Amino acid sequence: MAETTEKYQQAGPKVQPGAKEEMVYTWPYLVSIEAIMAVVMIFALTLLSTFFNAPLLDLANPEVTPNPAKAPWYFLGLQELLLHMHPALAGVLVPTAALVLLAMIPYIDRDRRGTGIWFSTKRGPKIALWAAIYTWVVELFLILFDEFAFDKFLKVSFVPSGSHGIEPFLTHLLMKLTGASLDKVDWVGKIFVPTTFMIAIPWIMVAILKKRFKNMNTREVMIALYSFYLASFIILTIVGTAFRGHSMKLLPPWNLEGL
User: Fold this and answer.
1) Domain boundaries, position 79
2) CA–CA dist 167, 187 (Å, integer)
3) Global confidence as pTM
């Protein structure tokens, strides 16, 4: 036990007792950076408003609910998930599981080497970038596939007109093959298939990364999984914010007629 404690102490940052610490003051270093970013943001918004009109709607009417009624931006990723799976899964189980898994990282990765260092190892930035690109490509493909595949390219007679996405296709396919009622098979498309994808995508990513980066340690695996989580949050929020128009249809952001 003493040897383990000593090893961790040696791996951590060296602190000399009584030594003067170097300090970076809020003014002017931090404030100047914030002021520059504020000016850049104001200039960008001014330039944007010069070329594009804001998609303003009518005055608020408590008797008319807009379609779609979007959540605040920080919940739009979850609202995007609602389009592809069961509401309880997307709105309760997925965010709860994500928070629990994030809280478990310090208990899974207990190595103190590299603590306080961005990406911890020299391979960390490459692993994070690789995981982010993998996540964006796979999730964009799944969103586009669920949005257009069964409406444009894979139309079948046993799916009712007006149905949308993979879930009704799987549901009616199982009803046709097994003769079961709707309430007995709809869980396959709403719960089983999305859950399988959410587990399989990061698992396959880690397996590929372990082949690409030999001898990955636990810290690097956690970096990859956290990058997957962050990239998922970013891409789902962007799609839900800028690419979902009337009735939550997937539209380009410049197509204001669909908003």
Assistant:
1) 72-258
2) 9
3) 0.75
